[in-house]
Structure formats: structure tokens, C-alpha cells
């Protein structure tokens, strides 16, 4: 994804076309696996995975790439970032949603974000998960908030495992509601 993003930001027409193909993947008559195969399958570690694991892995990677292609469309700065566990803003879905919902220091978008995150948590079908995530990514896109798509793909993989699903939602909620010191708090500590 980093190579595709770099090419897109360098204004490569082939990268723009590749993102367009990724956005249309699964659309009737629009997306071709052969046209996006190099982006989707290059360096993908499928060796040794059981059939169910490989299917979960592919479903997660495909959705993350489609969402990234939507998020990056027409943007001049990178919308895919790397997870940083030590940063106050970690790049996870929960922290990115917090950023979008509290853009410019207010919380006017928080109710909409929280409603969509609740819908995502309640989703029981993969199609519903995709619809909810697409709505959240569109809100992130509107506020220029980037997301760690590698981490999202990992979370989406776990979301498909019944025993891990609750942990994924708990992690997203934790990152959304986590304490973030305000400038006033920092001044008090000094």
C-alpha cells in the first residue's frame, strides 16, 4: 500500500487508475481481479493458512484496500499511516474516529461518529460491516483524518472470528474514548 500511496501522491496516472479499480472491486461488471492483482496479492503471505484463515485474510485485505482507495481519492496528503502505539494519536479506527468527531477542538461530529461505530458493532453480516465502515471512512475523508489500513485489515480479520469480535470492538471503543490530555492539562503538570 505504501508504494501505491507514494505513486498516487507523486501524481502517477497508473496509481490513480489502480485506486479507481480498487474502489470498484466487487461492483457488477466493473472490478477485475487481474487488474488489481499486483496491488492486492503482491507480498501477501498466504502460504500455510488454512482455507478458512485464507478466506478471512483475503476478505479483510480486500475491504481495507477498497476503503483506502475511497479515502485517498483526490487527496494530496497520505490517508494511510502506520500504527504508532506510543503516539497520543495511534492511527487506529477508534482514534481516527475520535479525531474526525472532534475536529477543530469541538465535538459537533461526535454523535454521528458514535452512532456509526455503534452500528458497526451491531453488524452481524459482512456486508453490513462494509457499509458501516464505508460511512466512517467517508467521514474521516471529509475531515482529512488518516487511518492505519494495515491495522484495520488485521482488526477486520479478527472481527470474523467469533471469539475475537468483542475484543476488536472493545479496542476501537478504548481508542475512541481514551483520555487525551488537553493543553491546559499539560500546562498544569509543568
How would you sum up this structure, described in words?
The chain is mostly helical and 190 residues long. It has helices at 2-9, 13-24, 33-41, 51-72, 93-101, 110-122, 126-142, 149-159, 162-177, 183-189. The model has no long low-confidence stretch (mean pLDDT 80).
Largest sheet: none
H/E topology pattern: HHHHHHHHHH
Per DSSP, what share of the residues sits in E-state strands of 2 or more residues? under 5%
Oligomer: single chain
What's the pLDDT, averaged over the residues?
Answer: 80
Q: Give the count of helical stretches.
A: 10
C-alpha termini separation: 41 Å
Instruction: Identify the overall geometry.
Output: globular
Q: Helices and strands: which structural class?
A: mainly alpha
Helix content: 55-70%
Strand tally is 0
| Radius of gyration, in angstroms, nearest whole number | 17 Å
Low-confidence stretches: none
List its salient traits.
190 residues, mainly alpha
Question: Brief description of this entry?
Answer:
The protein is mainly alpha-helical and 190 residues long.
List the helices and strands and how they pair.
Elements (H helix, E strand, L loop, with lengths): L1 H8 L3 H12 L8 H9 L9 H22 L20 H9 L8 H13 L3 H17 L6 H11 L2 H16 L5 H7 L1
Helix pairs in contact: 1-2, 2-4, 4-7, 4-8, 5-6, 5-7, 5-9, 6-7, 8-9
Amino acid at each position: 500500500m505504501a508504494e501505491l500511496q507514494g505513486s498516487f501522491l507523486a501524481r502517477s496516472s497508473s496509481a490513480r487508475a489502480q485506486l479507481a479499480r480498487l474502489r470498484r472491486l466487487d461492483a457488477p461488471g466493473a472490478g477485475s481481479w487481474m487488474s488489481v492483482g499486483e496491488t492486492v496479492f503482491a507480498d501477501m503471505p498466504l502460504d500455510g493458512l488454512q482455507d478458512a484463515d485464507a478466506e478471512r485474510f483475503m476478505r479483510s485485505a480486500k475491504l481495507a484496500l477498497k476503503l483506502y482507495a475511497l479515502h485517498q481519492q483526490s487527496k494530496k496528503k497520505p490517508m494511510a499511516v502506520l500504527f504508532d502505539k506510543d503516539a497520543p494519536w495511534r492511527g487506529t479506527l477508534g482514534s481516527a474516529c475520535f479525531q474526525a468527531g472532534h475536529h477543530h477542538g469541538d465535538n459537533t461530529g461526535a454523535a454521528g461518529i458514535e452512532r456509526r461505530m455503534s452500528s458497526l458493532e451491531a453488524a452481524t453480516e459482512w456486508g453490513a460491516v462494509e457499509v458501516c465502515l464505508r460511512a466512517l471512512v467517508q467521514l474521516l475523508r471529509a475531515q482529512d483524518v488518516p487511518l492505519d489500513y494495515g491495522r484495520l485489515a488485521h482488526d477486520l480479520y479478527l472481527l470474523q472470528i467469533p471469539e475475537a469480535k468483542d475484543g476488536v470492538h472493545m479496542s476501537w471503543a478504548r481508542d475512541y474514548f481514551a483520555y487525551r490530555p488537553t493543553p491546559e492539562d499539560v500546562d498544569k503538570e509543568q
